[in-house]
Design brief:
The chain has 1 helix and 11 strands. It has one helix spanning 2-18; strands at residues 28-31, 36-39, 47-51, 57-62, 65-70, 75-79, 85-86, 90-92, 106-112, 116-122, 128-134.
Amino acid sequence: MPKFLRVLSFVLLATYTCLPARAQEKPVWKSVSFAIVKLNDGPPISWNMYHAEKRGQLLLRIWKRYLLIDLNQQEVYDIDPKTVDVQKESVGFSNSDKPSEPLDVTEWKERDVGSLDRLRFRLPKGSVVELQIPLRLDGKSLY
């Protein structure tokens, strides 16, 4: 029996050391099922919003641009689209890929409007982004 265990451990060790090193997987961000996005008081032509398991962070895609929105810190980061792995209904993105400095957003306003949380902020080049995110029954953010 000990000889069998030695052979088995050798086979397992050889199998796992021969496998290629797996690239570090990025956390999956799921598509937000309901939200309203406005850009300069009108709907953008193409957009999608994603949420991670960690509450208070949203990844907003407007055309080919990605914005990481940290609701807790009231910060917005411009994300390089090459760091986002697009899948069908989700994306892969790691917070380690975000820039070190946030965008210089102004006019950050958050307001509870009943069953929605409305967030407005102005990007550095003057565009105004408005998000309307649903709230849970206890009044906390759904995402």
